[in-house]
Write a structure and sequence with these properties.
heterodimer; A: 156 residues; 1 helix; 0% strand; B: 247 residues; mainly alpha; 65% helix
């Protein structure tokens, strides 16, 4: 086995059992100190960083969710507004259509009345004319008849 | 015993434990090159994990990214393998992981000392894991932990044979666990050192060994990280066996 004071190793220094107590002593010291560092410095710090990050990410997600809700609310509002406008528009169209119809009916009525008046007038005048002509015919026929009688009596 | 060769290659010298403060004698408390590199590893870990993330940045910078990556990598690994109950042992497993990872990676620096290449270190770690896992197994499951060795899904006739195999493999765990890591570290460093020795002896012809060193170094970069990962994932698997022996 190699002695530790030699300048070069003979065989494997790993198998020099005389160094084992020293190695294990320092290893135990090292392990204990390292474990303390891990337990009291590294783990709290890493967990803190991770928790912070988690918190911010969760906060952002919550905010995004909130905004999404508000957006859907606004969308609903727009939909409602649109529906209202549509129904209003329908109503306006309906009433104006009715108005137009009424007015048309009124106009039709007026024209009907005017037409019947004209017809009546025309008929009146026609009757007048007819009455007039009948009287004239009677007169003419009377005259004609007396003349014919005259002529006949003269001719005899 | 030692032969002076023309090449003068001493690939194993880098693993000698050297009491750098007290000089010649090595007592159990002597501050050695190995202890120095454990200290450097401690400082590096503190630098990456504490200094690197001192600002608690929401969007991490480079150092904090490394720290977070390693931290959550191990965390997720434990949850994947051992379930939520395994998370209780996260501080221990994470300590183990960064201890090995930083030891391996720092060991790749020229003139450094790789404490994970020593079987005493890896053996101690593996034995600790073995003992801890066995205790956890018995505490959590009582004698039910022994069902780990009694494979109820196998035919009854085979079970006694499987029992022997399972028991042997259970007790071999710390051996394979530790030798895998130390062996990998030692072999890689020794190979680099051998090629470096060639390069020193060949003069202008050193271009070939230097190329080889570059290639092996690249491979070693991969190996050091993978071995730290393998050690940790095996620890998780053993822990899972202790927490859920029936599966």
């Amino acid at each position: 086995m190699a002695s530790t004071s030699d300048n070069s190793a003979v065989g494997m220094p790993q198998l020099d059992f005389s160094t084992f107590p020293n190695q294990i002593f320092w290893l135990v010291v090292f392990c204990v100190v390292l474990f303390a560092i891990v337990k009291f410095f590294i783990i709290p710090r890493m967990e803190d960083i991770f928790a912070n990050r988690r918190k911010i990410i969760d906060g952002n997600i919550a905010k995004a969710e909130e905004i999404r809700l508000r957006v859907s609310e606004i969308e609903k509002l727009i939909e409602e507004e649109l529906q209202k406008a549509k129904s209003q528009c329908d109503e306006i169209m309906n009433t104006s259509g009715k108005n137009i119809k009424e007015q048309m009916a009124l106009a039709l009525e007026d024209s009907k009345i005017a037409t019947t008046q004209l017809i009546n007038e025309a008929e009146g005048r026609l009757k007048e004319l007819r009455d007039g002509s009948e009287a004239a015919i009677e007169k003419i026929s009377e005259e004609l008849a007396s003349e014919i009688i005259n002529n006949i009596s003269k001719g005899k | 015993m030692e032969k002076k060769s023309a090449f003068n290659i001493h690939p194993m010298d880098q693993f000698i434990i050297d009491p750098i403060l007290t000089g010649e004698s090595l007592e159990w408390y002597s501050f050695t090159n190995q202890a120095l590199w454990m200290l450097i590893s401690l400082v590096s870990i503190s630098f990456v994990f504490i200094f690197g993330s001192r600002k608690h940045q929401l969007v991490p910078g480079r150092l904090q990214s490394i720290a977070e990556l390693l931290y959550f990598f191990i965390r997720d690994m434990i949850i994947d393998i051992a379930g939520q109950e395994g998370l209780r042992y996260f501080p221990y497993i994470f300590t183990l992981f960064i201890l090995i990872l930083f030891g391996n990676v720092l060991g790749l620096l020229p003139y450094s000392f790789t404490y994970t290449s020593h079987i005493a270190v890896t053996g101690f770690l593996a034995l600790s894991v073995f003992i801890a896992v066995t205790i956890i197994g018995f505490v959590k499951n009582g004698l039910g932990f022994l069902s780990l060795f009694w494979i109820s899904s196998a035919p009854l006739a085979l079970r006694p044979i499987l029992l022997i195999i399972e028991v042997i493999s259970y007790f071999v765990r710390p051996v394979s666990h530790s030798i895998r890591l130390a062996g990998n570290m030692m072999a890689g460093h020794a190979v680099i050192k051998v090629f470096a020795g060639f390069a020193g002896a060949l003069g202008l012809g050193a271009i070939a060994p230097i190329f080889a060193i570059t290639a092996v170094y690249g491979l070693e970069m991969l190996v050091v990280v993978i071995q730290a990962y393998v050690f940790t994932i095996l620890t998780c698997v053993y822990l899972n066996d202790a927490l859920h022996p029936g599966h």
